[in-house]
Design goal:
With 294 residues, this protein is mainly α. The chain has one domain. The protein is built from 10 helices and 7 strands. A hairpin with a 2-residue loop joins strand 5 and strand 6. The longest helix has 25 residues. The radius of gyration is 23 Å and the shape is elongated. The two termini are 43 Å apart. This is Dilute domain-containing protein. Pfam families: DIL (PF01843). GO terms for molecular function: GTPase binding.
Length: 294
């Protein structure tokens, strides 16, 4: 129900994509059109996309702020607050990752820089609201043929499941900005080690869809793709072949995520510190006949 409400009313997928993937906060770095000038220097041209997507970014951040204020005003338990935002951020991050895996126009160096900046804003917001690090306690309840759900059972001192939901998108940005040319051992190894939260299918898909700057960098050669794929298969054998997306364990063939994944909300019980026998109820309530003498 919460996920459907997020999709339909609070944060439709178009808002998430516009705010994280299409909004361009870095000035003079256009993702829409850039080419090599006559003096062989990189020339950027803006087409106003960042301005048209600024309302999306504002809506995303204001919605997060309003939801947090609502829970705080009603005195919600911190564990409930964290579980709620875990669900929200799972939807946001899975929607963003699915979109970048399906759109070739999002797979270039400049776009990677812009998206990384937008993700940094979310990291700052989570830190400011003290939502990371996070304690364990979430229990997923949805399964699929390619996604195996497990409980979030991370040590409290380093368990940051809510914050680590951003890791796959951060690593996708690093992949878009990394060196991709000669299939030398060091370059291939760096890509494999820096994409620990992306599946093999996702890494190869991003490399295949990568669009280089015309005349500035070469296309990703087939030999490089083969070298990365071979190295990933060698590194990820057996259980090591699965990667983490928050509390999900994804197998190597998983490409797109289920944005409708949901958790079972766990509401903790905290005994009242005020003895009920000391409470005085107003007679105006008319319920004195319902109260048994102690």
């Amino acid at each position: 129900m919460l996920t459907n409400h997020l999709k339909e009313r609070l944060l439709p997928s178009a808002v998430v994509v516009g705010a994280l993937l299409e909004y361009e906060p870095i000035a003079n770095l256009s993702c829409q059109a850039f080419s090599i000038g006559g003096q062989q220097h990189l020339k950027f041209t803006r087409q106003g996309t960042w301005q048209s997507r600024r309302p999306h970014h504002r809506r995303l951040m204001s919605t997060l702020e309003e939801l947090h204020d609502l829970f705080t005003a009603h005195g919600a338990d911190r564990s409930v607050l964290k579980q709620f935002f875990y669900q929200v951020f799972f939807y946001i991050c899975s929607t963003a990752l699915n979109s970048i895996l399906l759109r070739k126009d999002l797979c270039n160096w400049a776009r990677g820089a812009q998206i990384r900046y937008n993700l940094a804003n979310l990291e700052t917001w989570l830190s400011a609201k003290e939502l990371v690090p996070e304690k364990p306690g979430l229990q997923p309840n949805k399964r699929s043929s390619h996604q195996v759900t497990v409980g979030v059972d991370l040590p409290s001192e380093n368990g940051q499941s809510l914050g680590t939901l951003l890791n796959p998108m951060i690593q996708a940005c690093q992949l878009l900005q990394s060196k991709k040319g000669s299939p030398d051992k060091a370059t291939v190894e760096a890509i494999c080690q820096n994409c620990r939260n992306l599946t093999e299918a996702q890494i190869i898909k991003l490399l295949t869809m990568y669009t280089p700057v015309d005349g500035y960098e070469p296309h990703v050669p087939p030999a490089f793709l083969h070298a990365v794929e071979t190295r990933l298969k060698a590194l990820r054998v057996g259980e090591a072949g699965t990667v983490s997306f928050g509390s999900l364990q994804l197998d190597r063939s998983t490409l797109l995520l289920e944005t409708g994944y949901s958790i079972n909300l766990s509401v903790p019980y905290h005994a009242s510190t005020v003895p009920l026998g000391h409470l005085e109820l107003p007679v105006e309530l008319g319920i004195s006949n319902l109260i048994l003498p102690l």
